[in-house]
Specification:
Layout: E1 5-6, E2 9-11, E3 24-26, E4 32-35, H1 39-60, E5 70-75, E6 84-91, E7 99-106, H2 115-134, E8 143-144, H3 148-161, H4 167-176, H5 182-187, H6 196-214, H7 219-230, H8 237-244, H9 254-266, H10 277-287, E9 289-293, E10 299-303, H11 307-311, H12 316-336, H13 342-356, H14 363-395, H15 402-415, H16 422-435
Parallel strand pairs: 4-5, 5-7
Antiparallel strand pairs: 1-2, 2-8, 3-4, 6-7, 9-10
Helix pairs in contact: 1-2, 2-3, 2-7, 3-6, 6-9, 7-8, 10-12, 12-13, 13-14
Length: 436
């Protein structure tokens, strides 16, 4: 009987499974085996799969029951020359294993394949296998499914566990409000059709949710129990989440509040995290302020262009007080500013010290040189972004066809009957005015 495969759904297939006569390489614990292909490719896939197994066990804990086999079948390139990955779920009584999860990897030209996608599918299979291990032994699972949010979320949690998480994505989520509601997140069955930005938001939102769950009291135990059911559960996933995490079930928005707190925590910058060039420029603009006390005792801030006023202050204590806030901000910025700005920050610190010490013969030239360097860095950054955009556009081989929808809508509007109401008459007059 042939397998029937739908996106992210693996259905029952009966029959005998045999791998006799095939060359294979397996992970140390035997949980993932790769068949056929060259020995170099098999070893590379097994190495990566072994690392994923260890990372997953470290994140959510190991299981004691005997695992079901996960196999990767390497297929020769097809006529299109493109790599493709298919998932299969088998039920079999051969070899003493009730289930077998299989990945068919059709290689591309030169035995190429998408390593990141394969690693994602292997993680997806490992999550499915956990639910199968926890399934009652006297029953047979007819299907297994892992929603995209769980695979993305666990992968992101592993990255953060290994110190490789990207804070800027979560910072942007907080600033833009681009997060996805938890209910919509867990209900989504596929990420197909998402544009790149939406896909990135989905991945980050999923990671924040999984890490928020892990951070709950007894979170490790709860998520282990959740993973034991999720792939074979036939009800609503949000219901299953609230069953295993009752402490966050504070109402319809309870889980979402916990999740948003996690995003906020992940978006906080560390002391040594490097800024981009635009971020460094903004920090410099904010830091380079002089502080003067008025006669009433209130502090007034002015730009660094007002440095001659500092030299005119009578006492050294007054001059130091005027430049100290800027100096302190620059010292902090030296930990996080873009690496090429380190000489600039040092230059500003020296210039401020010279101003406080009334050594200002070369101050004007020093500030001009520092500004010239900053202008050049900003220009180089702009050119680099333009170059990256050009490279991406010029090397793109697939088209989303999303812009065609806009053109169809525009054509449809042009062909529609025009309303002759006061509003449209006013717009016509404005358009004539600006077209002259």
């Amino acid at each position: 009987m042939a397998a029937r495969i739908l996106p992210f759904l693996l259905f029952l297939l009966g029959g005998v499974i045999s791998a006799s006569g095939q060359t294979s390489t397996a992970t140390v614990d035997g949980r993932v085996t790769v068949y056929d292909g060259t020995s170099e490719i098999r070893r590379a896939i097994v190495r990566d799969a072994g690392a994923i197994v260890k990372d997953l066990d470290k994140l959510v804990g190991e299981l004691q029951k005997k695992p079901f086999p996960i196999v990767v079948e390497l297929k020769k390139p097809n006529e299109t020359g493109r790599s493709r990955i298919a998932r299969n779920f088998y039920v079999s009584e051969v070899g003493g294993s009730k289930y077998r999860l299989q990945i068919d990897l059709i290689l591309g030209k030169g035995n190429s394949f998408d390593q990141a996608e394969l690693e994602r599918v292997i993680l997806e299979m490992l999550l499915m296998e956990r639910s199968l291990r926890a399934y009652p032994a006297d029953q047979t699972a007819a299907r297994v499914e892992v929603r995209p949010w769980l695979t993305d979320g666990v992968a992101e949690a592993i990255r953060w566990m290994k110190g490789k998480g990207e804070r800027r994505v979560y910072s942007f989520l907080m600033e833009s409000g681009g997060w996805i509601e938890v209910e919509k997140l867990v209900d989504r069955e596929t990420t197909d059709g998402m544009d790149q930005l939406s896909r990135e938001f989905f991945r980050a939102s999923s990671g924040a949710l999984v890490m928020a769950l892990l951070a709950q009291p007894q979170g490790l135990v709860s998520i282990g129990n959740f993973l034991g059911e999720v792939a074979t559960f036939e009800g609503e996933q949000l219901t299953l989440l609230r069953t295993h995490f009752p402490q966050v079930n504070l109402g319809p928005k309870g889980l979402e509040r916990w999740w948003m707190l996690q995003v906020a925590a992940m978006s906080e910058a560390t002391l040594t995290e490097r800024m981009t060039i635009p971020e460094t420029e903004e920090a410099l603009k904010s830091a380079l302020k002089l502080h003067f006390k008025s006669e009433s005792g209130k502090t007034k801030t002015e730009s660094l262009d007002s440095w001659p006023k500092v030299s005119e202050l009578e006492t050294l204590e007054e001059r130091i007080a005027a430049v100290r806030p800027a100096s302190d901000a620059l010292v902090y910025l030296s930990f996080r500013g873009f690496s090429t700005y380190q000489p600039v920050i040092a230059g500003y610190l020296k210039t401020l010290a010279d101003i406080a010490g009334q050594k200002t013969d070369d101050t004007e030239n020093a500030l001009a040189n520092l500004q010239s360097f900053r202008d050049a860095e900003t220009q180089r950054y702009t050119v680099m972004i333009d170059l990256m955009d050009w490279y991406h556009i010029s090397t793109e081989t697939e088209y989303s066809n999303q812009f065609e929808d806009y053109l169809k809508m525009k054509k449809g509007l042009e062909g529609s009957e025009k309303l002759n109401d006061p509003f449209n008459q006013y717009l016509d007059q404005v358009q004539k005015l600006y077209s002259k």
